[in-house]
């Protein structure tokens, strides 16, 4: 189901979708630039719309030479459905799930923008980050109904996360890496590599709660003060700090863009709002979650410099000279976070580390 005609044929023979649209003809357009899946917007003559997401038997970004199990989208359906039960105001409505056809239809978030895009050109209300803190606390506090081992996580996607976050970025000249001409990674210290191995072990073995698994500013949509969390195909049972750290990393990538585009920085109130909301809802954050969040944040910042899926905020920096500096800043920040995460005792200490690197006077 990779063409408009194939999508229309599927809708015609699927009662739940065929009855949703009652003003022919039906229009279909592929939207988004997802790495994994095909995403289509369906709309009729009266403007009634749905989003259809389909998992081909390969990775969309790299094509048929990179096969992937289609069952990955079943994991996403299951996880989003569970998230809808525990955080209903943060998850779009799912209208139709078809595990046999490896697709589902969901609410079209009309007027919403990716948080990643919104970060680049407008002020984001702090209430968005407060809600994200609340969502993270809900993940930590709730346990999903017991299911088979592969119901909420896909082994292949988990392995991709392991390889592209913790392994490939630290193998010299690895064919999976894509280095920009203006960036040459520094040799990593024994301490850095030891801590990356520790984070990998936590990711593989710690089953603290069900995670989104790819919670960054490109999988979060906003409209005014409303929030919608999407793209949960990488969900897995793991340490909560992985989701927290990934989100923090992408907030900081947006702030690095802001710094080099000479706009006001907001990382202090943003991180404080997110963390205080999380802290309030769980009644005090265990120390290991803070430490691990800082470490996973550093790992995510580090890997985005060298993997094919680059950080869009860094790529959006217009001047090549500024982009070169931004990559260096991001690498230096990631190194300090990974090397020292076990010693961070408060969110204020984390903010102070970030502030040293993002100090405008330095750049």
UniProtKB/TrEMBL annotation:
Concerning Pfam families, the annotation shows: APH
Matches recorded under InterPro entries: Aminoglycoside_PTrfase (IPR002575), Kinase-like_dom_sf (IPR011009)
> Which residues does UniProt call coiled coil?
none
**Enzyme class, UniProt record, top EC level:** transferase
Which EC numbers characterise this protein's activity in its record?
Answer: 2.7.1.100
GO MF term (any one) = ATP binding
The Aminoglycoside phosphotransferase domain sits at 30-250
The UniProt keyword set, sorted, is: ATP-binding, Kinase, Nucleotide-binding, Transferase
Name the protein family. Answer: Belongs to the methylthioribose kinase family.
Protein name per UniProt: 5-methylthioribose kinase
Its source organism is Sulfurospirillum diekertiae
């Amino acid at each position: 189901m990779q063409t408009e005609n194939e999508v229309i044929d599927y809708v015609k023979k699927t009662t739940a979708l065929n009855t949703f649209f009652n003003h022919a003809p039906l229009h279909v357009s592929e939207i988004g630039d997802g790495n994994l899946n095909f995403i289509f917007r369906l709309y009729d003559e009266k403007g009634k719309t749905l989003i259809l997401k389909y998992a081909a038997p390969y990775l969309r970004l790299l094509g048929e030479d990179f096969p992937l199990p289609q069952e990955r989208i079943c994991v996403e359906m299951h996880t989003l459905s569970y998230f809808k039960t525990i955080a209903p105001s943060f998850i779009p409505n799912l209208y139709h799930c078809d595990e046999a056809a490896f697709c589902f239809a969901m609410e079209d978030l009309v007027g919403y923008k990716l948080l990643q895009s919104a970060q680049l050109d407008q002020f984001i209300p702090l209430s968005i980050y407060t809600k994200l803190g609340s969502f993270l606390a809900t993940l930590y506090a709730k346990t999903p109904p017991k299911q088979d081992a592969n119901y909420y996580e896909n082994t292949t996607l988990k392995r991709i996360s392991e390889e592209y976050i913790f392994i490939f970025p630290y193998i010299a000249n690895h064919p999976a890496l894509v280095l920009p001409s203006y960036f040459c990674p520094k040799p990593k210290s024994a301490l850095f590599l030891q801590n990356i191995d520790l984070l990998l072990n936590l990711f593989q073995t710690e089953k603290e709660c069900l995670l989104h698994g790819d919670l960054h500013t490109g999988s979060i949509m906003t409209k005014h003060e409303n929030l919608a969390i999407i793209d949960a195909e990488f969900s897995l049972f793991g340490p909560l700090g992985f989701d927290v750290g990934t989100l923090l990393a992408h907030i900081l990538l947006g702030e690095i863009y802001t710094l080099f585009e000479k706009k006001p920085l907001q990382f202090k109130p943003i991180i404080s709002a997110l963390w205080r909301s999380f802290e309030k809802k769980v009644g005090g954050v265990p120390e290991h979650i803070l430490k691990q969040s800082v470490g996973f944040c550093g790992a995510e910042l580090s890997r985005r410099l060298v993997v094919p899926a680059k950080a869009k905020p860094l790529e959006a920096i217009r001047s090549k000279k500024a982009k070169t500096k931004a990559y260096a800043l991001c690498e230096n920040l990631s190194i300090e976070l990974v090397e020292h995460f076990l010693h961070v005792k408060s969110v204020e200490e984390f903010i102070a580390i970030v502030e040293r690197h993002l100090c405008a006077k330095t750049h």
